[in-house]
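Input sequence (270 aa), recorded before submission:
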Amino acid sequence: MAIKVAALQMNSGPDMAANLVVFEEMVRQAATAGAYFVASPENTDLLGLKAEEKLTRVLGEEDHPFIELCKSLAQELGVWISLGSIAIKASDHKFYNRSYLFSPAGKQIAHYNKIHLFDVRLPSGEIQNESKIVEGGDQMVVASTDFAHIGLSICYDVRFPDLYRKMSQKGAQILMVPAAFTVSTGQMHWEILLRARAIENGAYVIAPAQCGDHGAGRKTYGHSMIINPWGKILAESGEDTDIIYADLEMEEVERFRTSIASLQHDRTFR
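Predicted structure, token format:
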């Protein structure tokens, strides 16, 4: 049986209340269109703030309005929600870049703290030091739903294929890559990396992305994608806010992994 999924392409900004309204509208629209699984991008709650200012706005898990909204929406609409990531306070100096998964019963099923932090100096001159304010995670997460096993990751993680290999070997059939990719790296690498993660693991990849200008000099690439285990792009956004949809058949994962059994052929070497 096919499962209809939706990936939200957002343009989140520095106003959490405004982002909350947009997110709710998009989730409702996706559910009305028949999606059973709805996924949002990285930094759904806040984007376009300088590091020091963002730290002053970060909330604890128990106080975060996005968590309560996701529980309520998931139960009301009868859908699974993947909240791509929000900032959750870790200390006075850092926060977690954390992804969540909510069930149609309104329950938080899993969360994942971004492991690989985006500390780079790009040829364009852009400098990003995520580790300055983000506390990195150290736990791989594969969550079970009533339609698939889902591996959680966030943005820069996509450049570390071993994480996805291990998740797939643990049974992940869908790999989540919510992101806020920079424009320059997105143009060069986004599609290639996502299709590679799908093909090498024989898994669906769902990659909801941020897009456009967010303020404070932050611009993101967009081009949200849903990709099948063979590397075929089933749906793709452009550069503007959007919702994309695709029907996923979990039997396709089994067909790929039976035909190309690379997950069983890994070897240790020096």
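Checked by second reader. The domain at 3-260 is CATH 3.60.110.10 (Nitrilase/N-carbamoyl-D-aminoacid amidohydrolase).
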